[in-house]
Structure formats: C-alpha cells, structure tokens
C-alpha cells in the first residue's frame, strides 16, 4: 500500500512560544531580540492553567505570544510572520478596526487603552508608555484560560497578571502627571478575544473585549493618587522620568464604575449587533432590550465573573472542558506565556 503522505508541519509560531524571538534576519526595535526569561518564570510559577502540548489552547497561546512579540519589538511590518498582511486588522471593545501600522506608530499600550483619569494615549508616546507600565510591573504574564471555538474563527478567554513592584507614573486625560504608590500586590485582568485566521493560521481579524479600567482600579484600589501639573512642552518620556514638585493634588475618590456602566463604555451592550463578543453572539432586540438566546449567560453576569476572577491571584477557574479540544490540565506541564506591550 502506498504510504500516506505526512501531514504538513505546523508553523513554528504555533508550537513554540519563542519562535519569532529566534528570528535573526529581522529588524529588532532595540537591536536584538528581547529577553523574556523573567516573565516566563513568573508565568510557570503562577499560571492557572497547564495546557497539554499540542492542544488547541496551547497553540492559540503560542500564536498570540509570538504576535505580541512582533507587535512590540519588530518595528518593520514586513518582518511580522504571525499576521496575514493583506487582511489584518485589530480592534478593542468594538472600536473602529485599525491596521498594524497604527499599533506600530503609537505602541501596544496606547493602542488598547482609552483616555481616562489615570492614563491617556493622547499625552503619551511609545517610549513613555513602556516606561509607565514596565517600570511599575517588571513582569506581566499572560495565558489562555479557555478556547470557545477553533479555526478559522478562534474565540478565547485570557488572563494577564503581574505584581505592582514600583510606583505607577503616567499622564492622564487632562495632561496631568499621575502617581500611585506601589502596593506590592497583584494586578490581574481578564478579557475575551475573537480572531480569524487564514490557512497558514496567521491572524486576520483580531477583536478583543476587556475592561481597561479594571487594571487602574487595582493600581489605585482606594482611588488615592497624586496629580501634578506639568510643562506641556515636556516630552512624555521626560514627564514620566521627572520628579518635578508641581502642584500636587491628592484625590481620595475611589473608582465606582459599575459593571453595567463598564459594559456600556466598552460597547458591549451592542456587541451582538457588531457580531463579535461570544457572550452576546446571537442576541436579539426585544422591546428595545438586548435578549440573549436561551442557555447563554447574561453578558453582565459573565463579565462580572471575569472581573471578580481577575482580582483573585491564585483562584482556580473551575470549568468543564472538552478534553479532546482543551487537553488535560496537568499542573506539571510547563507552558511559556508572555505578552509585551499591551500584554506579555
């Protein structure tokens, strides 16, 4: 009998979380590939899930890790291997989709955070954004928690976490320098991403939903920060570096955004209409209100669960999973997550 041809090998960016870090004939932002050994260590010691090698969650996890390496550290777009260059776009919380060039220009943090009382991409640039977040949290690990569907449309829930070891220093939506004292505690957020891929399992459409304010609520859990007026002519990176003794205005008003308000702000109330969020998919309008199909958890209930879980550093999420799709969660299996820039 003729021998069956071997199935095509999977791309290395699916099987190896460090695949693109090994690229040599590319332009790296700082002259060489970044070192993620510390983040890898934090991930392996504090992750919630251990995915079976070759399982769908592990492959998705590796793809996203490699994509984020390229988005943060490969400034030349043609060097990106993880995207379908002709069909790639990225959007956060039902915002207008943008191409890879936009993220390259402003940086991954600025691409995913809307202006608010703690931080604003309008007053920050690539360099200052990395100083703001990477100094505060030297490691910011990332993992896939659940995968809801496989290619060509991959939807999954993720977790992103670290420890606030140093003060938060950023520029807010009023152009003020904002400082929050380091508390040494966990910063832990979660979200949902829906992505389409081509036959090479390269990313095409990437749509992510999460509550960016949840991170800031954890940075300043009591709402206590110092705000300073700064010279508008200063470069953003210099503002973050400065120790200017401007007019300091402490505030003790805590963040009180409800889950409902957060959902409205993120556009999740209309997620079904935009055809994105898996929690709202199939929802119908009845009497002016969005109704989910029978058997689906309410969006607010699900997002409340996501937010609550994200605030418990060592909480193990108990979910019945399809073992064929998700693999065994063997605690001795070592994955390697990461996401620089917006994630790591």
UniProtKB/TrEMBL annotation:
InterPro entries: NTF2-like_dom_sf, Pathogen-related_defense. Residues 286-303, 310-335 have a biased composition (Basic and acidic residues). It comes from the Eukaryota. Residues 279-344 are annotated as: Disordered. PANTHER family: PATHOGEN-RELATED PROTEIN, PATHOGENESIS-RELATED FAMILY PROTEIN. This is Pathogen-related protein. It comes from Didymella glomerata.
């Amino acid at each position: 009998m003729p021998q069956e041809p071997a199935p095509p090998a999977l791309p290395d960016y699916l099987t190896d979380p460090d695949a693109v870090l090994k690229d040599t004939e590319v332009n790296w932002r700082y002259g060489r590939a970044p070192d993620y050994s510390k983040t890898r260590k934090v991930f392996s010691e504090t992750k919630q899930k251990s995915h079976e090698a070759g399982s769908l969650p592990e492959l998705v996890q590796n793809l996203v890790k490699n994509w984020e390496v390229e988005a943060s550290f490969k400034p030349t777009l043609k060097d990106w291997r993880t995207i379908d260059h002709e069909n790639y776009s990225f959007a956060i919380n039902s915002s207008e989709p943008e191409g890879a060039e936009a993220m390259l220009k402003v940086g991954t943090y600025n691409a995913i955070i809307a202006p608010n009382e703690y931080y604003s991409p309008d007053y920050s640039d690539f360099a200052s954004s990395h100083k703001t977040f990477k100094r505060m949290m030297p490691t910011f690990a990332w993992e896939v928690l659940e995968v809801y569907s496989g290619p060509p449309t991959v939807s999954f829930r993720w977790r992103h976490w670290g420890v606030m070891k140093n003060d938060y220093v950023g520029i807010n939506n009023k152009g003020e320098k904002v400082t929050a004292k380091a508390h040494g505690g966990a910063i832990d957020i979660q979200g949902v991403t829906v992505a389409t891929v081509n036959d090479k399992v390269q990313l095409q459409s990437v749509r992510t939903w999460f509550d960016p304010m949840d991170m800031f609520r954890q940075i300043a859990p009591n709402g206590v920060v110092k705000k300073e007026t700064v010279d508008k002519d200063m470069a953003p990176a210099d503002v973050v570096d400065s120790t200017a003794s401007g007019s300091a205005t402490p505030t003790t008003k805590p963040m009180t955004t409800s889950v409902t308000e957060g959902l409205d702000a993120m556009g999740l109330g209309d997620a079904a209409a935009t055809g994105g969020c898996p929690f709202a998919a199939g929802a119908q309008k009845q009497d002016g209100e969005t109704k989910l199909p029978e058997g689906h958890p309410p969006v607010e209930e699900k997002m409340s669960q996501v937010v609550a879980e994200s605030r418990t550093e060592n909480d193990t999420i108990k979910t019945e999973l399809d073992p064929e799709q998700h693999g065994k969660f063997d605690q001795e299996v070592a994955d390697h997550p990461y996401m620089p820039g917006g994630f790591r």
